[in-house]
Specification:
Number of helices: 13
Strand content: 15-25%
Number of strands: 15
Oligomer: single chain
Largest sheet: 7 strands, mixed
Shape: elongated
Order of helices and strands: HHHEHEHEEEEEEHHEEHEEEHEHHEHH
């Protein structure tokens, strides 16, 4: 066997050994995370980090690269408090043939409201074929309740609950909220976005169901969304040729309601917190507009991808330890940084050009622990048990 082949076999043996040590360390940390409560904040902090946030931020830095949202329009009902006026506005919108009208507001049984106003709003909504009304699952101690509008029996209803913290995903089918605990229970309702897609874009809805994902990444690439003011609609200040709602999904909400603002994965319009109805608009556009739906690498492929990258990094570490005895630590640190930057660059290019999200979770862990694991493996090779095995199996001493 030539010297080059001997070195290759030795480096591969050490690389695989280092990989096994890395896997062992990860298993140990996973066990400790379940056992030691103080590690839970670390796990939550890691969960709040996503490469896609950086990809979207980078993509949104481009000037002039702005999509137009032709499938969705926003009707802002801010400042319109009379239920009679809201009914008039919805009735006017319905005349222009929207695909779906979705109200991202909940109108309770308000005893202070005039019964005539309530009846007017109810009757108008009952006449709109595809009208979706917001519901919300609310935790009340150890129980769950559904908050919904008084007209819920004359229209479709769906949950507007979105994820806590940073909003990165939408549900294409249903929303489930659990009380937690051993004796807890859960409640499942159709999701707001899913129900809108089912009524307005049944082909897109079917495609999302066939993908089988409980949640989909929201593509926050900047887009121009038409926003119509309901006050101007009521005052007839909108020109008919500019009031383009035909065959579109119309989301009705209050853009000035600060209670419905949520933190998103990137910056839009100079803000990191935007209106919940606008989040629904981006979710619907993600599913319906060309080149916006994002495919995530599966967990199985992510593990294989991570093992291959980790093995390549381990091979380099083993070579550096032998070739550069005095400076191998610095070389490995720079290489580690290069691997991480290279992964981010490749991931960004793949995401922006192909809407495919490479999962680097396992690769990052492997590369991050590579230097430590290789030193641990080389120490293990010097121990008597390994030396004894090496005498029996010659390939362990190559």
């Amino acid at each position: 066997m030539s010297d080059k082949m001997v070195k290759f076999c030795r480096y591969m043996r050490q690389s695989v050994g280092t990989l096994l040590v890395t896997i062992g360390v990860c298993v140990l940390v996973a066990v400790l995370t379940f056992s030691w409560a103080f590690l839970n904040p670390i796990a939550r902090a890691l969960d709040a980090i996503a490469f896609t946030d950086n990809y979207l931020y980078t993509e949104n830095l481009k000037e002039g690269d702005l999509d137009y949202c032709q499938n969705v329009a926003f009707v802002n009902m801010s400042g319109v408090h009379s239920r009679l006026e809201i009914a008039e506005g919805l009735d006017y919108i319905a005349k222009f043939g929207p695909r779906v009208v979705a109200m991202d507001c909940i109108f309770s049984h308000n005893i202070s409201s005039d019964s005539i106003e309530n009846d007017s709003l109810r009757n108008v909504i009952a006449r709109i074929p595809n009208f979706v009304s917001a519901q919300r699952i609310v935790k009340m101690g150890d129980s769950l309740a559904v908050e919904q509008s008084f007209y819920h029996d004359v229209c479709y209803n769906a949950s507007v609950n979105i994820e806590d913290g940073i909003v990165r995903h939408f549900s294409p089918d249903s929303v489930t909220i659990s009380t937690g605990g051993e004796n807890g229970y859960s409640l499942t309702l159709p999701s707001f976005v899913g129900e809108i897609l089912r009524l307005g874009y049944p082909d897109k809805y079917k495609m999302l169901q066939e993908r089988g994902n409980d949640e989909e990444l929201i593509n926050y690439k900047k887009m121009q969304v038409d926003v119509f003011d309901m006050r101007k609609i009521l005052d007839m200040e909108l020109f008919l040729d500019s009031f383009d709602v035909n065959d579109r999904i119309i989301l009705v909400g209050d853009i000035d309601d600060l209670r419905d603002y949520h933190t998103i994965a990137t910056e839009l319009y100079g803000m990191r917190r935007i209106n919940g109805t606008l989040i629904h608009a981006y979710s619907i556009a993600t599913a319906t507009k060309e080149h916006r739906l994002i495919t995530n690498m599966s967990t199985g492929w992510a593990i294989i991808w991570g093992l291959l990258i980790t093995l390549a990094f381990n091979y380099f570490c083993c070579w550096a330890y032998e070739a550069y005895e005095k400076t191998n630590g610095m070389i490995i640190n720079f290489t580690q940084l290069g691997f991480l930057l290279g992964m981010m660059l490749l991931g960004g290019l793949t995401f922006i050009n192909f809407r495919y999200n490479l999962n680097y979770t396992y690769a990052m862990i492997g590369v991050g622990l590579g230097g430590f694991s290789s030193e641990l493996w080389l120490w293990f090779e010097s121990l008597a048990p390994y030396q004894w095995l090496a005498k029996k199996w010659k390939w362990l001493s190559l």
